[in-house]
């Protein structure tokens, strides 16, 4: 047995290359083994090999070596997808020695006349960077790669940039970043760091140099600056964004950039920073958009700053923007927060006069006390307006959150005392509150109360969906299944949300096959899954490496006519599909 000792990133791992007898693979024919003289159908060998590398990562390389050595005719029938799959499996092992193996595989592709795509060039560049063979990278990039006119990908750009930095050619590195300003690839600090963690995990200097180059030569373009801000906020790196902004604030930024900064810092609960950036924006003469207006109203609500809220509304209108229902709702929230109830009701009444805005479109404010919420509900009843589920949910949440009842009966008494007449919307809102608190015991009691005298209400789709969501979050599959069956028996057609929570319940109970049955039933009832549902299923198939169910998911997704617009969903879909064909 030949042995190669290759270092794992955090420990030493022994990688062995088994002998022929150890690599013997059972065939789907009785008595047929590798190394025997019995005639074997090459097609069976190829199919069995494909199945093996998809189900057993550790055997991927030994099986490949054996196939190449002992059955060259079958080896020559490997497709491009086969080579892509085995490389993906090798990278997945995360063993340090796989770089050499990946390089051997892409060289084998050339021997079999498989033309390299950007995927193969990416792997070549990354392997060479890890091996510190910078001349090989530059020779390939300046020669064959550019001669073929292949556009750089994010990965190849990061490697070439790192190579220029490592050889001390900062001028070429800067030119490369400038070149990307006019191309489709966006130089990204986050993406560069990810590539370096894979190829040069202990080199912090190169990351700092790349940051400076991208900042100096890339952030002059709004598209690149905005993309980097979104990436960093997405990784909860608000402090890095703040430092980046301080380096850029001396120049006038685009409105979209200010919008991203404001929303990011508000979401990160850094209200003072957001306020400071907004002041910089005003001083720079940049006028607010509806997006900026909506974001800053959140800040002004927190600060109870009515004057600033009214001013930004005026500025937004002055710039020709129309205010939507969300902005009006936030303005009402500002008034309630500042205890200016009269102004809040004035805005509310103005909304009702507009034919394009109806009360049922409003996710109303979360008042700070039950008296305010009750007053609004009473005013609605006087106007003979019927609030929808969202309105009731947000209002009742305000009442219950302020008093924190300990039981369903107590919460009902609070609402009655506040002057809210119980109806099915009220009970659904109460259910929603208990579900959010993950108190399914009181949610169940609320359900019992609404069905009992003197109310005798019939549960709606929203009622059952609330319960399904609660059982999914508390991982109570038996009760979720029971609720779903009760829903069907009551002639209530489950909506997409109900099916989604049922599928989540199955997945959390490690019952992928049952989740797939649920999807098929969903489609049979002319209810199509959402992007989130498809993503959950594809991710679960990939996590469990269950390509059989994965093929079913792909088939159902194709048959549904669902249009893939999310890049993440496209990658998950294609990854599963490649393994199932």
TrEMBL record:
<feature type="repeat" description="PPR">
    <location>
        <begin position="153"/>
        <end position="187"/>
    </location>
</feature>
<feature type="repeat" description="PPR">
    <location>
        <begin position="254"/>
        <end position="288"/>
    </location>
</feature>
<feature type="repeat" description="PPR">
    <location>
        <begin position="460"/>
        <end position="494"/>
    </location>
</feature>
<dbReference type="InterPro" id="IPR011990">
    <property type="entry name" value="TPR-like_helical_dom_sf"/>
</dbReference>
<feature type="domain" description="Pentatricopeptide repeat-containing protein-mitochondrial">
    <location>
        <begin position="245"/>
        <end position="350"/>
    </location>
</feature>
<protein>
    <recommendedName>
        <fullName>Pentatricopeptide repeat-containing protein-mitochondrial domain-containing protein</fullName>
    </recommendedName>
</protein>
<dbReference type="InterPro" id="IPR002885">
    <property type="entry name" value="PPR_rpt"/>
</dbReference>
<dbReference type="InterPro" id="IPR057027">
    <property type="entry name" value="TPR_mt"/>
</dbReference>
<dbReference type="Pfam" id="PF13041">
    <property type="entry name" value="PPR_2"/>
</dbReference>
<dbReference type="Pfam" id="PF13812">
    <property type="entry name" value="PPR_3"/>
</dbReference>
<keyword id="KW-0677">Repeat</keyword>
<dbReference type="Pfam" id="PF23276">
    <property type="entry name" value="TPR_24"/>
</dbReference>
């Amino acid at each position: 047995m030949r042995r190669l000792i290759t270092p794992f990133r955090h420990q030493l791992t022994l990688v062995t290359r088994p002998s022929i007898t150890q690599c013997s693979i059972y065939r789907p024919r009785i008595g047929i083994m590798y190394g025997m003289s019995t005639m074997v159908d090459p097609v069976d060998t190829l199919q069995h090999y494909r199945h093996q590398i998809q189900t057993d990562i550790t055997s991927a390389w030994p099986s490949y070596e054996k196939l190449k050595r002992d059955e060259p005719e079958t080896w020559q029938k490997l497709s491009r997808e086969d080579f892509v799959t085995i490389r993906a499996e090798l990278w997945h092992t995360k063993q340090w020695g796989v770089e050499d193996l990946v390089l051997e595989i892409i060289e084998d592709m050339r021997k079999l006349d498989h033309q390299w795509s950007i995927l193969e060039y990416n792997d070549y560049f990354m392997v060479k960077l890890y091996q510190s063979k910078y001349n090989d990278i530059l020779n390939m990039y300046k020669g064959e790669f550019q001669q073929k006119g292949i556009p750089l990908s994010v990965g190849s750009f990061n490697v070439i940039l790192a190579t220029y930095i490592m050889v001390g050619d900062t001028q070429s590195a800067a030119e490369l970043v400038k070149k990307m300003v006019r191309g489709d690839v966006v130089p990204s600090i986050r993406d560069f760091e990810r590539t370096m963690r894979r190829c040069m995990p202990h080199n912090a200097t190169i990351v700092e140099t790349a940051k400076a180059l991208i900042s100096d030569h890339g952030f002059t373009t709004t598209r690149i600056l905005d993309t980097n801000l979104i990436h960093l906020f997405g990784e909860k790196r608000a402090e890095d964004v703040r430092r980046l902004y301080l380096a850029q604030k001396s120049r006038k930024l685009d409105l979209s950039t200010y919008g991203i900064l404001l929303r990011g810092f508000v979401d990160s609960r850094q209200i003072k920073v957001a306020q400071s950036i907004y002041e910089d924006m005003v001083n720079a003469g940049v006028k607010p958009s509806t997006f900026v207006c909506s974001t800053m109203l959140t800040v002004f609500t927190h600060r109870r700053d009515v004057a600033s809220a009214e001013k930004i509304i005026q500025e937004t209108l002055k710039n020709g923007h129309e205010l939507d229902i969300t902005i009006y709702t936030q303005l009402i929230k500002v008034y309630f927060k500042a205890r200016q109830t009269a102004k809040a009701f004035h805005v509310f009444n103005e909304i009702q006069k507009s034919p394009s805005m109806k009360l049922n479109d409003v996710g109303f404010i979360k008042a700070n006390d039950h008296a305010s919420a009750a007053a609004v509900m009473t005013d609605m009843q006087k106007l003979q307006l019927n609030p929808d589920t969202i309105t009731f949910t947000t209002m009742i949440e305000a009442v219950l959150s302020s008093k924190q009842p300990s039981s369903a009966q107590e919460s009902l008494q609070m609402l009655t005392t506040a002057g809210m007449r119980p109806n099915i919307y009220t009970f659904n809102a109460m259910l929603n509150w208990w579900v959010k608190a993950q108190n399914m015991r009181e949610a169940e009691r609320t359900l019992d109360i609404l069905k009992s005298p003197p109310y005798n209400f019939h549960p709606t789709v929203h009622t059952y969906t609330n319960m399904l969501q609660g059982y999914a979050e508390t991982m109570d599959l038996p009760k979720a299944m029971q609720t779903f069956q009760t829903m069907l028996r009551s002639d209530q057609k489950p909506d997409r949300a109900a099916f989604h929570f049922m599928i989540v319940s199955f997945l959390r109970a490690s019952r992928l096959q049952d989740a797939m049955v649920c999807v098929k039933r969903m489609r049979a009832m002319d209810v199509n899954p959402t992007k989130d549902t498809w993503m959950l299923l594809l991710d679960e198939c990939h996590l469990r490496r269950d390509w059989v169910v994965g093929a079913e998911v792909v088939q159902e997704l194709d048959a549904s006519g669902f249009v893939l617009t999310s890049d993440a969903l496209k990658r998950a879909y294609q990854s599963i599909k490649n393994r199932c064909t």
